[in-house]
Automatic annotation (TrEMBL):
Residues 29-204 form the Ribosomal RNA adenine methylase transferase N-terminal domain. GO terms for cellular component: cytosol. S-adenosyl-L-methionine binds at N22, L24, G49, D70, D97, N119. This is Ribosomal RNA small subunit methyltransferase A. Specifically dimethylates two adjacent adenosines (A1518 and A1519) in the loop of a conserved hairpin near the 3'-end of 16S rRNA in the 30S particle. May play a critical role in biogenesis of 30S subunits. It comes from Desulfonema magnum. Its EC number is 2.1.1.182. PROSITE patterns: SAM_RNA_A_N6_MT (PS51689). Pfam families: RrnaAD. GO terms for molecular function: 16S rRNA (adenine(1518)-N(6)/adenine(1519)-N(6))-dimethyltransferase activity; RNA binding. It is found in: Cytoplasm.
Length: 283
């Protein structure tokens, strides 16, 4: 792996802050992440934000195929050269915005499910996670690098101030564990905070199944939309378009105190609430 500083200088490039470009500069760390990801020779990887190829190349050596996505044209051109130099022919480079990529159509082309990898920019991390949750029938697991505080939020439990909407959505359909802690000094340019790699392994079926997943996700969003308010008031003042009386009654039917707050509910309680509200709204 060529040093990021050497590469960007040779190509007269500058890391783009607006794209959240912080390039992993330590080859052994990239190798460690791929090793802990336990990628098998038959696996197909979808990499989000290929950058300078720090993860792309070790992933390509481990997997059957890698679809490497990046929206930066200059980096795609650079990576083409690096892949040739490293004699890697099983990487498909895609100059795309990951938020606009049709993952389902790509899965049909790949004729299989993906393992998703990536060092995610902070400003689009949440949007990408929501997309992966909705596309989880074609994604077995995701190995993703986040800023440390976001990773901690994703792994938080009920009753913790870090526990939020994305935590509940992920806990509903996946198991999450930490794979590695990565120091800020191992990136170029050096970010202000350390990063953490987590694995999100999607379940074949949720332990507590919602009657309507879209309703569940709307309820979770509404509950955390005004997290300092009681659940009754948060739900009543949300896009669910219900009043305080219906909110309180539904919470009561679900066996949940209307005066509790969103961060105190576990996944099973959110599913129960969602199922009860769905019945009320469909009557």
């Amino acid at each position: 792996m060529t040093s990021p500083i050497t590469l960007v200088k040779a190509w007269n490039l500058y890391p783009k802050k607006q794209l959240g470009q912080n390039f992993l500069s330590d080859p052994s760390t990239a190798e460690m992440i791929v090793a802990r990801s336990r990628i098998l020779p038959e696996d197909v990887v979808l990499e989000i934000g290929a950058g300078l190829g720090a993860l792309t190349m070790p992933a390509a050596r481990a997997a059957q195929k890698v679809y490497a996505v990046d929206k930066d044209h200059q980096l795609i051109e650079l990576l083409k050269t690096e892949l040739l130099a490293n004699r890697l022919s099983n990487v498909v480079l895609m100059e795309k915005d990951i938020l606009k990529l049709d993952i389902e159509a790509l899965a049909e082309t790949a004729a299989g499910k993906f393992i998703v990898m990536g060092n995610l920019p902070y400003n689009i991390s949440s949007q990408i996670l929501v997309r992966l949750i909705r596309s989880r029938t074609i994604v077995t697991r995701a190995i993703l690098m986040f800023q440390k505080e976001l990773a901690e939020r994703l792994m938080a439990g009920p009753g913790c101030k870090d526990y939020g909407r994305l935590t509940v959505m992920l806990r509903y359909c996946s198991d999450i564990k930490s794979l590695a802690h990565i120091r800020a000094s191992l990136f170029y340019p050096k970010p202000k905070v350390d990063s953490q790699v987590i694995q999100i392994k999607f379940k074949d079926a949720p332990e507590y199944r919602a009657d309507d997943e879209e309703m569940l996700f709307k309820v979770v969003k509404a509950a955390f939309g005004k997290r300092r308010k009681t659940l009754r008031n948060a739900l009543a003042g949300s896009e669910l378009h219900i009043d305080a009386k219906i909110a309180a009654g539904t919470l009561g039917n679900a066996g949940i105190d209307p005066m509790r707050r969103a961060e105190t509910l576990d996944v099973e309680e959110f599913v129960r609430l969602s199922n009860c509200l769905g019945k009320v709204l469909n009557d």
